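Structure catalogue
Derive tokens from sequence
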Amino acid sequence: MSLRAPLFCIIPEQTEQVARAAFPKGTPSMRMRDALGPIFTNPDFTHLFPKDGQPAYAPAQLALITIMQFAEGLSDAQTADSVRGRIDWKYALALELTDSGFDSSVLREFRTRLIAGNAELLLFETMLTLFREQGYVKPRGRQRTDSTHILAAIPVRNRLENVGESLRHALNVLATTAPDWLMAWVPAAWSSATAAPSRRTASRKGRSSGMPSRRRLVRMDEHSCPISIAILHRL
């Protein structure tokens, strides 16, 4: 695919009229467009596309769609449907009301192109620069470093939680099918390791602390995972 899209897009007159009539007070997507403009421009992505080949869908719009998709927690299919059917999205993306959109696979291809071109942070950097220019973010010297660090740490934490939940499930099954065997192998350190629930999971009312019962084991965190693995090694 080659990049032959215009520099940026102006909201079509009919799209603006219909969107204003349907949403007099605007929507988050419309207010974002009014406050920040198009945010991305197609030349920002020139280095990701060859000079010849089939014309690609405007990358500036795909970048904004990716941000809107993340903000609303939509799947690729839901996002493609929103581009086709939502008036406020057509307003934010400067699309004609009759625009038929694209197949959801285009979003996956765009993300793949960003990664292949080592442009994973392009969207973040562009938005951060714009927010600073608009006064939404005040430069303090560590804003860029801290933000990227947080974005990188979240997936690691999620994988750790998945491991803990998998171990918890396995031990809960053992607590139901072989409670006597399990309790015989529970070490003394189990009580202190599982006295508190995971930091990201609030304690439920009525849940007791201390040694687990034969029919229930409390939620584990990174401190109790090694103990749980040691028990499973006994199988």
